[in-house]
Design goal:
heterodimer, A: 113 residues, mainly beta, seven-stranded mixed sheet, four-stranded antiparallel sheet, B: mainly beta, six-stranded mixed sheet, five-stranded antiparallel sheet
């Protein structure tokens, strides 16, 4: 199983809503990542979890709150988002943080209205 | 920090032709160079990668070459097929995945 599974695939939320994005992998990977990708741009790193601990936060606004409940799951909690936060949110995982292959999920297409 | 430039931004070829995408990087400490293919509405998929101790790597119709001295690496796709149409991203990384910097992407269109 070389899959990173993200749910939901699409999400439309209002600026006052609270929602969560979910990511799951069963490859035994110990590093997991959240990326944000705007149209026609490359992915931008948001957060890095290593062994279930947050190791990097790329100065992401607090309206994005990551959580790693266990080694297979990664959540991104969303609250009070702005329309400019609309993007494709990608989860990725790798065996460790060092130079190994990173596997990406299909992404959640988020629209903030 | 690392800066990765990718060219061309768009590339259109006829089915059966070859396609070449080139990237340059700025930091000589970078030692891992993956290539990702992203189809419409999907996440990036790793298609091939190369490490700095190797000059070339091939996997069926796809090959990657690395010139460490010139700090550039290229993706070569031979006998292109319509299903090769996608956006391709190169990336360069030093020690950790969070160091990874992506190129701006190349939209490849293969015309039947």
């Amino acid at each position: 199983d070389t899959e990173v599974t993200q749910t939901p695939k699409h999400l439309v939320m209002g600026m006052t809503n609270k929602k969560s994005l979910k990511c799951e992998q069963h490859m035994g990977h110990r590093a997991m990542y959240w990326y944000k990708q705007k149209a026609k741009k490359p992915p931008e790193l948001m957060f890095v979890y290593s062994y279930e601990k947050l190791s990097i936060n790329e100065s992401v606004p607090s309206r994005f709150s990551p959580e790693c409940p266990n080694s297979s799951l990664l959540n991104l909690h969303l609250h009070a988002l702005q329309p400019e936060d609309s993007a494709l949110y990608l989860c990725a995982s790798s065996l460790g943080q060092t130079n190994t292959e990173a596997f990406f999920g299909q992404g959640t297409r988020l629209t903030v209205v | 920090g690392e800066n990765v430039e990718q060219h061309p931004s768009t590339l259109s070829v006829q089915e059966g032709d070859s396609a070449v995408i080139k990237c340059t990087y700025s930091d000589s400490a970078s030692n891992y160079f993956p290539w990702y293919k992203q189809e419409l509405g999907k996440g990036p998929q790793l298609i091939i990668d190369i490490r700095s101790n190797v000059g070339e790597k091939k996997d069926q119709r796809i090959a990657v070459t690395l010139n460490k001295t010139a700090k550039h690496f290229s993706l070569h796709i031979t006998e292109t097929q319509p299903e090769d149409s996608a956006v391709y991203f190169c990336a360069a990384s030093m020690t950790e995945i969070n160091d990874m910097r992506f190129g701006a992407g190349t939209r490849l269109t293969v015309k039947p």
